[in-house]
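Memo to structure team: turn this sequence into C-alpha cells by end of day. - J.P.
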Amino acid sequence: MAHDDTPILTPELLLRAYTMGVFPMSEGADSQQVFWVDPTDRGILPLDRFHISRSLRRALLKPWYQIRVNHDFAGVVAACADREETWINHEISGLYQMLHHMGFAHSLEVYAEGKLVGGVYGVVLGGAFFGESMFSSRTNASKIALAYLVDRLRVGGFVLFDTQFITEHLKSLGAVEISRQDYQQRLNAALDIRADFLRQSPEDVSAKGILQRNSQTS
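Reply from structure team:
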C-alpha cells in the first residue's frame, strides 16, 4: 500500500515510519518522488531457519573473500542503487547515510583482493533488522553476506529480520511471507528488545563457526 503526499523526509521521520511497519521507496534513481510502502504480505527471514545449501557451504569455506562491517556503507548503498531498476534515489540514499552516521544503519561487506564485491545494508531498531538492499558482483557474494549477517544478528540478540518483500533467491535461503497483522505483532515485540549489531567483531567470526552455529539452530 503506497501513501502519497509525502512530507519532507528526515531521519527521525524515517525511524518513526519503521516502528509503524512502513518504509520509503522511489520509482527510480532519477525520480524526485518518495512514497511509503506497507505490504499486505511481508517477507521475513527467520533467524533460526536460515538455509545453507551444499553449494553455499562450499563457498563459505573457500578463502577468497574477506568480511568487513561498516567499512564502506556509502559504497554498498551506491552499488545497490547501480542497476537498471532501483527504488533508491538521491534523497533515500542521503537519508540512509544520515541514519548510518547516527548509528541506526549498518552494512556488511564482502571483499575480494581488496575490492568490494558484495554486501547488504539495513536499519536497526531494538531487536529488529530491516534489510534494505543487497548486491553481488561475484558469484555467491550476496549469499555469503547474508550468512554472515544472519549469524551476526543471532549473536547480537535480534529476533526479527525483515526482508520487506520476498524473492526466489530469499526463499531458497529460508525466507517466508507473513501477514501484515503477524508482522506488526513480531515488530512490536522486537522493538522492546535491546540488541547489538556490533556485539560480534568480524575478526571473531569464521565460516566454520557460522556453519556450526547454523546447524545448532536450523
